[in-house]
Specification:
The protein has 400 residues and is of the alpha/beta class. It has helices at residues 17-27, 36-48, 60-70, 87-95, 114-122, 143-152, 210-219, 234-237, 262-272, 275-292, 322-325, 329-338, 354-360, 366-374, 386-399; strands spanning 53-57, 78-82, 99-103, 130-131, 156-160, 168-171, 174-177, 186-190, 203-207, 224-225, 250-251, 300-302, 309-310, 316-320, 375-378. Strands 1-9-8-5-4-2-3 form a seven-stranded mixed β-sheet, sandwiched between helices. The chain has a three-stranded antiparallel β-sheet with strand order 7-6-13, with no helix packed on it. A three-stranded antiparallel β-sheet has the order 12-14-15.
Length: 400
């Protein structure tokens, strides 16, 4: 508790009795690790985002990594990543052994613009194999345009959709779901507790390609398969009568222990049934912020809105003129914390991290720098009320 009552974090999960019951049912059952509940979650998640295939895994980072591997990224390859994202997007490219080409972003949305993507291709220094558009805060990139630019450069698109479960966009005047992979080869999601649905930790990759889906299943499980149709060593896989040996499995490539457990999947499956309610609540809270912050403009403004996008808001990021307010971001965060209000910064440009500066030097990305210098994430989660927003805006007004 704080002097103004209960602490209001920038983000949190919403766990209800039916979620707890779903996990307890698994704990009392026969499977705790990857089993039938994980399979049910994969099928349900694919349906939820209008994709033919979904492969769950242990985290959003794992999802990005196996997507990079399934795309055959490796040493000598390049992939474009917007500078404003979490570390995992760029790191997944490096895990696979490929090089990152950072793109700039719109300083008012944090999203990579078509001109930013074209500029990144121009300075890549060679062919680019993949583009990782990042749907920051729940707003999506202009996917049809990104897909068109990438395809003309013989690159594939792998969406970092970790912020965007429930987000829709317009494609040829038709509503299209992020994750449906209409304009991407694969899409990666996260089910971290502050995301739209929680699994404790968890992630998923969606795709429309059945061959990729099978490979993703292998990559999340040590590169191993028990699928008789995929066996290469027939002499070891079958007995003399041609019957498959029941103990037999094969590893045709290196994979990872990135499986989701049935415990996590039970929570995810229960949460997924509520996704429409959760997304609607987040949109309502974001709209109320927009209304309430108008009197603080231009010193504090919401993110500019991406065209042709209906966001399922993961974060509520506002842009602050800290010089005009005569208060530093650090001081403002501390003052809000004293009022029982949690905030966060999403994100420090990844290109500014020491590892990447050593590897690629100091790349000038003025849009990313401008966005970072002004951004601050205010509380947003599905069980917030309009009075919670009023409390945040009242505290901001009193401080500034």
């Amino acid at each position: 508790m704080t002097r103004n009552g209960k602490f209001l974090p920038y983000g949190r999960h919403v766990i209800e009795d039916d979620d707890i019951a779903a996990v307890v049912d698994v704990l009392r059952g026969d499977w705790l690790t990857t089993g039938p509940t994980t399979e049910k979650f994969d099928r349900a998640f694919a349906i939820a985002v209008d994709a033919p295939f979904a492969v769950s895994c242990s985290s959003g980072t794992a999802a990005l990594h196996i997507a990079a591997l399934a795309a055959n990224l490796g040493p000598g390859d390049r992939a474009i990543v917007p500078a404003v994202t979490f570390l995992a997007t760029a790191n997944a490219v490096r895990y696979a052994g490929a090089e990152v080409v950072f793109s700039d972003v719109d300083p008012n949305t944090g999203l990579m613009r078509p001109t930013d993507l074209e500029a990144a291709f121009a300075r890549a220094g060679g062919p680019v194999k993949a583009v990782f558009p990042v749907h920051l805060a729940g707003q999506c990139e202009n996917l049809p345009v990104v897909h068109d630019i990438a395809s003309h450069k013989s690159a594939i698109v792998i969406e970092d959709a970790c912020h965007a479960l429930g987000t829709n966009y317009l494609r040829d005047s038709l509503t299209t779901k992020v994750g449906s992979c209409v304009d991407a080869t694969m899409s990666a999601f996260s089910f971290h507790p502050v995301k739209a649905i929680a699994m404790g930790e968890g992630g998923a990759v969606t795709t429309r390609d059945p061959t990729l889906a099978k490979r993703l299943l292998r990559l999340r499980n040590h590169g191993m398969t028990r699928d008789v149709g995929q066996f290469e060593q027939k002499d070891l896989a079958f007995d003399s009568d041609g019957i498959p040996n029941p103990w037999y499995y094969e590893m045709s490539e290196i994979g990872y222990n990135y499986r989701a457990s049935d415990i996590h999947a039970a929570l995810g499956l229960s949460q997924l049934r509520k996704i429409d309610r959760f997304v609607s609540a987040r949109r309502n809270i974001a709209r109320h912020y927009d209304r309430c912050l108008k009197h603080l403009a231009p010193l504090i403004t919401p993110l500019a809105r991406a065209p042709n996008c209906e966001p399922a808001w993961h974060l509520y990021v506002a842009l602050f003129d800290f010089d005009g307010l005569r208060v530093s971001r650090n001081k403002l965060m501390a003052l809000l914390k004293e009022e029982g209000i949690g905030t966060q910064v999403h994100y420090i440009p990844v290109s500014a991290q020491p590892y990447y500066r050593r590897r690629y030097n100091n790349i000038p990305l003025p849009g990313a720098d401008r966005y970072y210098s002004r951004c601050l994430t205010l509380p947003l989660h599905a069980d917030m009320t309009e009075s919670d927003v009023d409390r945040v805006v009242s505290a901001l007004t009193g401080i500034v």
